[in-house]
Design a protein that fits this description.
Layout lengths: L19 E3 L6 E3 L12 E6 L4 E6 H6 L16
Antiparallel strand pairs: 1-2, 3-4
The structure holds zinc ion (ZN) (2 copies).
């Protein structure tokens, strides 16, 4: 009896346990490669939260739901003298 295989919450295909991340937003697991040597598709990406200096993961499903793909453009106003 094989182990229960987990499915990607984005594409629905079987996950590689070594190259999997859990989405910080929906909690679903998705394909993400952890080695540059691995040739595989990715179903999500890293998201840098500069405000809290943390790295989060976002699956493509959540990325598509986000209103801005560019990230918040909230730079502090330039002080001009
Ligand atoms: Zn996938
Ligand atoms: Zn997600």
């Amino acid at each position: 009896m094989a182990e229960q295989e987990e499915m990607c919450s984005v594409c629905g295909e079987v996950l590689d346990p070594d190259n999997t991340s859990r989405c910080s937003f929906c909690g679903g697991k998705f394909h993400m490669k952890w080695s540059v040597k691995v040739e595989m598709k990715e179903c999500g990406r890293f998201v840098m939260n500069e405000q809290f200096c943390t790295v989060m993961f976002m699956c493509n499903t959540c990325a598509a739901r986000m209103p801005s793909q560019q990230g918040p453009q909230q730079e502090p106003p330039q002080e001009t003298w």
